[in-house]
Amino acid sequence: METYIPISYLNDFIFCPRSIYFHQCFGRSSKRLYHSTDQIDGLTAHKTIDKNTYSTSKETLQGLEIYSEKYNLCGKIDIYDSSKYLLIERKKKIKVIYDGYIFQLFAQYFCLIEMGYKVEHLKLYSMDDNKSHPIPLPKDDEQFFNKFEALIETMKSFSLKEPFVPNKNKCTHCIYHTICDVSAC
Fold it and tell me: pTM of the predicted model, to two decimals?
């Protein structure tokens, strides 16, 4: 049986494919042992979604578990507004729209479509500064759609035995650099 790719791993894999391995090493350990302040802030920001207390509107789905057989992905959405066919991925603070953010939104989109939902709009939302960033649908952005599919294929075939070139800028910010055998730090 093939293992599913958690949607949250898309952004992590782009940051550093090796970080997913180290994350798995910690298993069910307390996140306080290995999460940075930014990660803890992000988890705290998602509490209203995780507890289904963001909205009481019947049109607002929150924290829905999703799955895509085509892409072998699973995860949860943040918010889906069924009256507007709008899928929203919330981030604590968006300073830069990273490819991984868009790929997470694409993954959620494809899962919802496969599950029979209608999605016509995608949006990233920055909670700290209350800014919305509309994102084109995959069919309207062929370049990002192709990059998304290439990422999925790369993740499926990745091995820690492959040659790896560390990136000092990323390693400096990686919470696993102290246990990584190839860290640039």
Answer: 0.83
Map tokens 């599913």 to a residue: 4
80-91, pLDDT tens digit by residue?
999 999 999 999
**Which tokens hold the place of 61?**
């789905």
Q: Residue type at 163?
A: P
Q: List the chain domain ranges.
A: 5-173
Q: List, for residues 116-163, the tens digit of each pLDDT value.
A: 999 999 999 999 999 999 999 999 999 999 999 999 999 999 888 888
85 φ/ψ sector (left φ>0, alpha ψ -120 to 50, else beta): left
- Give yes or no for a contact between 104 and 123, defined as CB atoms under 8 angstroms apart: no
List the structure tokens of 152. 């999925």
- CATH architecture under which domain 5-173 falls: Alpha-Beta Complex (3.90)
